[in-house]
Write a structure and sequence with these properties.
heterodimer; A: 241 residues; mainly alpha; 81% helix; 0% strand; B: alpha/beta; Alpha-Beta Plaits; 2 domains; 6-stranded mixed β-sheet; 4-stranded antiparallel β-sheet; elongated
Amino acid sequence: MKQILHIAYRELNSFFDSLTAYVLIVIFLGFSGFFTWIYGADVFFLGQASLDTFFTVAYWSLFIFIPALTMRSIAGELKAGTLELLLTKPVSDWQLILGKFLSTFFLIGIALTPTLFYYFTLWAIGPVDHSAIVLGYLGLLLMSMVYISIGLLTSCLFSNPIVASLTALSIGIFFHIIFDVLAANFVGFTGSVFNSLSLSTHFESITRGVVDTKDLIYFFSISFFCLYSSKMILSNRNLQV
Amino acid sequence: MDIVVEHLTKRYGPQKAVDNVSFRVKAGEVLGFLGPNGAGKTTTMKAISCYINPDEGDVKVGGYSIKEHPEIIKKNIGYLPENNPLYQDMNIIDFLEFIAKIHGIPKYLIPERILDMVRICGLEGEKHKLISELSKGYQQRVGLAQALIHDPEILILDEPTTGLDPNQIVEIRELIKRIGKEKTVILSSHILAEVEATCDRILIINNGRIVVDGTAEDLRKQAAGNEILKLGIQGGDVNDIFENLLDLETVDSVDFIDIDKQLFEIQSLKEETSVKAIFDLCVQNNYYISELTPTEKKLEDIFRQLTLH
């Protein structure tokens, strides 16, 4: 466990050293703040003390940002040769993968933390549905978890960061929207299969304020599958330089 | 800790990088791993340091197999990979601290260990610089420092002196020698002089197989062959001298090196020496010797001989 945290901490530091983290946080807060408070269907326009707009913006912007964060995580280490350095230290393949996963997850957490001010502000303005907001954040974290895992997997598969990030995006877009669209176009069994595959269905059901084990299982199983595959690829040292 | 490599085989596609290699390194020994590029040195070292899984065979370090207990082995090995990969965006102290933490060195000991490493590896003046700002020689020292920080029993260095200037090479060699007194060291190189200067034992590997296993002395003996002399004789006609030399019983062949200066190259028969016969010849014919130099085969030549197939 300690090893995982050491790796995650180092990685997180390098996000901040390379300015990636600052750019991400600034853009993310800028976007979400703009759409939540100033423009379009903002809080004042809706006239409701709800952060639904924010969650929608975050839902999309995290989807786009995460592949850019994960694209170099394994491939970059492999190219620089530091993967060899790390894996010949007392670090197992699982610890490396989980460390990488956690570093991005923490970064998303750091980016989300300042948005708690939106919540407190809203709380001051009007009656807030607290559970819906808490679960909204939970939904965002669960969603990030899935996309980080997918990003890590593609980073194991492709050494070129651009290819890795685009592949992660295109796999992501299936979960993000395509399954949802397909579910709407099919009826019966096929429709329900697509419906349960769609990430937006599960995300919405959580943000609505209902935590169903089904949803949790969905998020955790996809993440586990991707992390496990990444670990297997790493263990076989079947990586392409 | 002993290192025992048993029938190690590793394929990359159809090509065998390492082919049934077995050897053993005793604790406290400094082993030089030698071979041309692509001979399988790096692959073998990667297998010992638990980075790659061999297709066949096994490596045992201190009795533990790399397949079953890599975590124990990794703790006891300090490894400097080829090309010395480092986190370029970190500074030296942070980097060493990270490595120390990964090795599970207790927190209160870490600052002390880092300072030790900085001192031993001569990094005092640079310690707050980013690794990317360092010259190659200093980066190599950081590489050594990270390999040594947990005070490992075994040190594996893959081409530790590439890219260094002659002064740095000498310094690193001294360092390795000093470390080698207490620890088991395996170092690879394709420079013979370096291995000869630092190692107790030499292992030459070519095309994935071990060609020679022994000390530099053994190696010389094995490839020594016939006596070769560079000889200069004056005081007579070149052609007469040449004929006379050829007539000597112990001489196998005579070549001209320089006709004007009357220099010859004499190769004696196997396990014979022609020095006395040449001297006698000169006395009989009133020649005089202007030069007589035994030509020792250089290790470089032996190396070429063994690996050029």
